[in-house]
Specification:
By secondary structure, the protein is an alpha/beta fold. The protein has 6 domains: 9-160, Nucleotide cyclase, GGDEF domain (Alpha-Beta Plaits, 2-Layer Sandwich); 187-315, P-loop containing nucleotide triphosphate hydrolases (Rossmann fold), CATH 3.40.50; 321-408; 412-478, Winged helix-like DNA-binding domain superfamily/Winged helix DNA-binding domain (Arc Repressor Mutant, subunit A, Orthogonal Bundle); 480-614, Tetratricopeptide repeat domain (Serine Threonine Protein Phosphatase 5, Tetratricopeptide repeat, Alpha Horseshoe); 715-821, no CATH class. Helices cover 58% and strands 10% of the residues. The longest helix has 19 residues, at 481-499.
Length: 821
């Protein structure tokens, strides 16, 4: 009988590349060739002490007590197969998997299999954990950081030997979120739903909350990345309640600044719409997208079908008993590393109807309750469900009862915190939980351990949607619900103000669009509560503080919020200063959305309010805005008159930041008048004034504009110096748009200098980053960069472009700021 190595074990997986093709090519000889391949591999593994854990079809799973033996066996195996018709990919990873009667379980097993799956025939891939256990003997090539299809964080991979292979089969053009654990089971579902996705353009995974629809869909999308060269894009909808926001959410995930259908066009991409049941009225948007694009596909998760033409539904059933037990064991070992399977585990999983979320909640309790005690408590908590048929409504009752049971086991302080956390519209920071809910770290950690609260790879916290629904019921029934909502709204007003996204203020400091994006769901939740509760002043303060979030990301959403707030009777009685600022911000949203006349009307009203208040700063800001409006409609003479009047007010008051803005706009007017030299001088002055005012975000933008003007004038070296300075400031501020714009300009400069490969690497990184998430105000600058990029083409550019698609934004910035070799 075999004895599996325990403790630190090195796991090796193999698979034949193109086995189906080989079968067709070799015909009757295939069985003979397959048998010879098995013989050669078994000899290599046995020679180095490998223990065969499992063999399925043409794949091996082998364990080694030492990493060096595993690598030596892999080398021998590839040498033995060299020159033959069979090419095998091999993946090696070292960890501490748990030994069971059936073999090994745990994340390390999944990781080793995924590493193998990323490779090509003839290639051996190793994890960082394995590399660290090797001496200097084997020749390894560092392949860098890669995201594997298990959707966990990026892994550093190494290749045995220096042979050239195609790029690894890892995730690149996608925003699929990092998952805390690999998917357990679901092989049948992945196969069946995968067939549907290959043959249909709209597939909806349906099932009750907690059945694992989202995790299955994410894995299905990850497995399908090679089918979609233009990207796989996750669109989370769980925080949305307004169907009108769905199209923006899709555009945001795809990075579409313009019309969605025009952006998608004939691209071969996949859109994953997650938690659609809350906005099912938006189903016509999906139909329109598919009707207007020939190659895009849509994968949906929803508790109910969309009921649109061509929809293929796939019901997500509970986990089968074996997979359910495996999930329980893996999650139990996360909280109690010494946990070993027991007979009661199978009964627990049956009791919970195989619902993944319910199983995770129960497994989180094994640190306090052994499986028999856990089963006894579940039997007492779920007695009424024992004889019911296991249809979807009954399963939903099981899940709710499990959540209730988990909640009732909490200490009183933990129960209060859990209830209050429902106030958050999406994910949130620890600091926000402390400020809004009086949370302490110990209680937050306890809720995470008990699987009632999730900690994402970003460090943010959040409630799964099904669990949040229960928490919302508790919060709505509580006596202090309005107090909690008010604290939430007031906290996110302070967060919005900290982000410095109110373009009418002259407060020094960096513009933090990253904060605005991260907290957008909470801002929405806070403003929605303000509308419902009649707290219009508070809602207008938040919406106004987020002026540049709306204008850079989705002005139409800003328009909707301002309309809902300003149409309420209470809006007439808010402080006159607040109303003036709100009308100004509302006008900004209208203008960016292309409603120029309506924008001008709002700005005229806002200007009148500031004049009644004798607020000279507010008046200057509005004159500047009205000057921009005149520039938009081509009345450059009127534009210059208004901006110069604003400029004179700022000069009298000594408002240096105001002067930076007006000077920059006068530069833009000069540019449109054809005065390139005058534009250069004015934009240089704008950057200098912003530096003097201590407003780095405006300085960074002015320097980037100056770089473009310099390049247009043939001043390559000045353009290079300006954009590098701009990019360095953007890095310090965490300014994502500024970083992408800077890398794009430096790609253009590389093209101007004939550095084709460098230009390709930088431009690919820009395009991929821009595709993953939206970038407001990018179109004009992108067109200018592309005009320069188009001057270079050929194999060097193509090779660089292929390499650049694996770069993160940070990597691209580092490359852009480095001196070209």
């Amino acid at each position: 009988m075999r004895t599996l190595p325990s403790g630190t074990v090195t796991l090796l997986f193999t698979d034949i590349e193109g086995s189906t093709r080989l079968l067709h090519e070799l015909g009757e000889r295939y069985a003979e060739v397959l048998a010879e391949h098995r013989r050669l591999l078994r000899e290599a593994f046995s020679r180095h002490g490998g223990v065969e854990v499992d063999t399925q079809g043409d794949a091996f799973f082998v364990a080694f007590a030492r990493a060096t033996d595993a690598v030596a066996a892999a080398r021998d195996a590839q040498d033995a197969l060299a020159g033959g018709p069979v090419r095998v990919r091999i993946g090696i990873h070292t960890g501490e998997p748990v030994v069971t009667d059936e073999g090994y379980v745990g994340a390390d097993v999944h990781r080793a299999a995924r590493i193998m799956g990323a490779g090509h025939g003839g290639q051996v891939l190793l994890s960082e954990a394995t590399r660290q256990l090797l001496d200097s003997g084997p020749e390894l090539r560092d392949l860098g950081e890669h995201r594997l299809k298990d959707l966990t964080g990026s892994q550093r991979l190494y290749q045995l030997g220096d042979e050239d292979f195609p790029p690894l089969r890892t995730l690149y053009r996608t925003n699929l979120p990092i998952q805390p654990n690999p998917l357990v089971g679901r092989e049948r579902e992945l196969d069946e739903a995968g067939v549907l996705l290959r043959s249909h353009r709209l597939v909806t995974l349906t099932g009750p909350g907690g059945s694992g629809k989202t995790r299955l869909a994410l894995q299905l999308a990850a497995e399908a990345v090679e089918q979609f060269p233009d990207g796989v894009f996750w669109v989370p909808l769980q925080a949305l309640r307004d169907p009108a926001l769905v199209e923006h959410a899709i555009r945001a995930s795809l990075g579409a600044d313009d019309d969605l259908i025009d952006h998608v066009a004939d691209k071969r991409l996949l859109v994953l719409l997650d938690n659609f049941e809350q906005v099912v009225e938006a189903a016509p948007i999906v139909s329109s997208l598919l009707a207007g694009t020939p190659n895009a596909k849509v994968l949906v998760t929803s508790r109910e079908p969309l009921h649109v033409e061509a929809e293929q539904r796939y019901p997500v059933e509970p986990l089968p008993e074996e997979d359910a037990g495996l999930l329980f064991v893996e999650r139990a070992q996360a909280v109690a590393p010494g946990f070993r399977p027991a007979a009661a585990v199978g009964q627990i999983c049956r009791r919970l109807d195989g619902l993944p979320l319910a199983i995770e909640l129960a497994a989180a309790r094994v640190a306090l309750l052994d499986p028999d005690e856990l089963l006894a408590r579940l039997d007492r908590r779920l007695p009424l469900l024992a004889s019911r048929s296991r249809d979807a409504p009954a399963r939903q009752q099981t899940l709710r009862a499990t959540i209730e049971w988990s909640y009732e086991l909490l200490a009183p302080d933990e129960q209060e915190l859990f209830r209050k956390l429902a106030v958050f519209g999406g994910s949130f920071t620890i600091e926000a939980a402390e400020a809004v809910c009086d949370a302490d770290l110990e209680d937050l950690e306890s809720l995470v351990v008990k699987c009632l609260l999730r900690r994402w790879a970003t460090g943010r916290l959040g409630l799964l949607d099904t669990i949040r629904e229960y928490a919302v019921e508790l919060l709505d029934a509580a006596h202090d619900t309005n107090d909690v909502h008010r604290r939430h709204a007031e906290h996110y007003l302070s967060v919005a103000e900290e982000a410095n996204l109110n373009a009418g203020t002259s407060r020094p400091g960096g513009q933090r669009l990253d904060i605005g994006l991260a907290e957008r769901d909470n801002f929405r939740s806070a403003v929605a509560w303000a509308v419902r509760n009649g707290s219009i002043g508070l809602g207008l303060e938040i919406a106004t503080a987020l002026e540049q979030l709306w204008t850079l990301e989705d002005p139409n959403e800003g328009i909707r919020w301002f309309e809902r707030l300003l149409e309420r009777p209470e809006a007439e009685s808010v402080a006159p200063s607040l109303r003036a600022h709100a009308l100004r911000a509302y006008g900004s949203c209208l203008g960016i959305a292309g409603h120029f006349q309506a924008a001008e009307e709002m700005w005229v009203q806002s200007l009148a309010n500031f004049e009644r208040l004798e607020d000279e700063h507010g008046r200057a800001v509005l004159l500047h805005r009205l000057g921009i409006s005149a520039m938009w409609r081509g009345d450059l003479e009127r534009a210059r008159e208004l901006v110069e009047l604003s400029d004179s007010i700022h000069r009298r008051s000594g408002d240096v930041f105001g002067l930076a803005q007006t000077t920059g706009t006068l530069g833009a007017i000069a540019r449109d008048e054809g005065d390139e030299d005058g534009a250069l001088e004015l934009v240089r002055e704008s950057a200098s004034l912003a530096r003097e005012a201590g407003v780095p975000w405006w300085e960074s933008g002015a320097l980037a504009e100056l770089a473009c003007l310099s390049l247009n004038a043939g001043l390559l070296e000045e353009g290079d110096a300006c954009v590098r300075e701009s990019l360095e400031i953007a890095v310090q501020l965490g300014d994502r748009p500024g970083r992408i714009f800077g890398v794009g300009i430096l790609a253009r400069i590389a093209a101007e200098r004939g550095q084709s490969k460098r230009a390709g690497r930088l431009w690919a990184a820009v395009e991929d980053e821009d595709a993953v998430a939206p970038l407001g105000g990018w179109r004009r600058h992108r067109e200018a960069c592309e005009a320069g990029i188009r001057r270079v083409s050929g194999p060097d550019f193509d090779r660089g472009y292929a390499e650049g698609r694996d770069l993160t934004l940070d990597d691209a910035v580092s490359l852009a700021l480095s001196e070209p070799v």
